[in-house]
Amino acid sequence: MRKPILSLLGGVMILAAAGQAVMLMDGLSRLSAHAEPSELMAGCTDVPEAVALAETLRERALRIDRYMQDIDRRKAELAFAEKQLTGRLVELRKLKRQIAQGNQGQSQAQNEDIARLIAVYDQMKPEQAAMVLSNLPPDFAAQILARVQPETGARIMASVEPGHAAVLTSYMGAIRAARKQVE
To answer: Tens digit of pLDDT for each residue in 56-88?
Structure first.
């Protein structure tokens, strides 16, 4: 769930940074003032409208400079945020790999434990195995019976009380059906 959210946030931040960069490249040449105030006013100091226009243009140039500084600051903030998000994404990917490796190791250990348990039941006498399995929860006993050697399982089932054998058989059928659905 976190990966899609982080990917989405990273994508939005990258798009925003790219949009700002395009606007800056395109707009810088248009927004910069090319004439010096003294050049604008040459020969026009006695015309009040020209003086007012020159003052308005100077104020606009100052505002544009402030806007450009603000855009530069935001661009730096976006670059910093992008760097942080990228670092966090790399960190999360490493954690995901570690978790996957841990789960794989844990699953392998469980399979080895179950294999040892099955080997124990394969070596037991059917009557002894039947007594132990009769005292286990039926779903767990059925999982063990489903994994032992078929001949051993048949001898154990012959030693189990008929009513309990019927319950174990129904659980074993459910286990096989579940395995077929997974495949």
So the answer is: 888 999 999 999 999 999 999 999 999 999 999
Q: Is the dihedral of CA 72, 73, 75, 79 positive or negative?
A: positive
Cα–Cα distance between 177 and 170 in angstroms, integer?
A: 11
Q: Which amino acid is at 139?
A: D
The CA-atom distances, in angstroms, between 131 and each of 19, 103, 106, 179 are 74, 34, 30, 27
| Distant-in-sequence contacts of 3-12, Cβ < 8 A, 24+ apart | 3/92, 3/96, 6/85, 6/88, 6/89, 6/92, 7/89, 9/85, 10/82, 10/85, 10/86, 10/89
Both structure tokens of 150: 């078929």
Q: Tell me the C-alpha distance between 143 and 118, whole Å.
A: 10
Give CA–CA dist 29/44, Å, rounded.
Answer: 27
**pTM score, whole prediction:** 0.41
